Amino acid sequence: MPDLPGLVSDQLAAAGASARGRSALRVVHDGPLRQTVIALLAGQSLEEHNTPPAATLQVLRGRVRLTSPSGDVVLSAGALELVPHDRHGVSAIEDSVVLLTAVNPQQ
């Protein structure tokens, strides 16, 4: 299994080197299960998008805002939150790294 603390540092560095201020790396792909480490520099966002059937967002470093029509939630390092089933977005309040865990139907 991947070393999460090392991935946090690596993905923050990759986000810093990116013109878009973000980076993502899929670390687990097992059947319907997907886990992705996503780094966002402060002020950067993942625009509103649809959600898979089941997903969680865990903040590994920093602070993010999870936005959805049902209301926004601010999450700090260590927080684990269900991803809303409606369209949602994520924005970094400070340099942040999250672990997105999603279950997608097998294709």
In short:
This protein is mostly beta strands and 107 residues long. Helices cover 13% and strands 51% of the residues. It contains 1 helix and 9 strands.
Annotate the secondary structure layout.
Elements (H helix, E strand, L loop, with lengths): L3 H14 L4 E9 L2 E8 L4 E5 L4 E8 L1 E5 L5 E4 L3 E3 L5 E5 L3 E8 L4
Antiparallel strand pairs: 1-2, 2-9, 3-8, 4-7, 4-9, 5-6, 5-8
List keywords for this structure.
107 residues, mainly beta, five-stranded antiparallel beta sheet, four-stranded antiparallel beta sheet, 1 helix, 13% helix, 51% strand
How would you describe what is shown here?
This protein is mainly β and 107 residues long. Helix content is 13%, strand content 51%. The protein has one helix and nine strands; from the N terminus they run H-E-E-E-E-E-E-E-E-E. It has one helix spanning 4-17; strands at residues 22-30, 33-40, 45-49, 54-61, 63-67, 73-76, 80-82, 88-92, 96-103. It has a five-stranded antiparallel β-sheet with strand order 1-2-9-4-7, covered by helices on one side. A four-stranded antiparallel β-sheet has the order 3-8-5-6, with no helix packed on it. The protein is globular. The chain starts with a helix and ends with a strand. The relative contact order is 0.27.
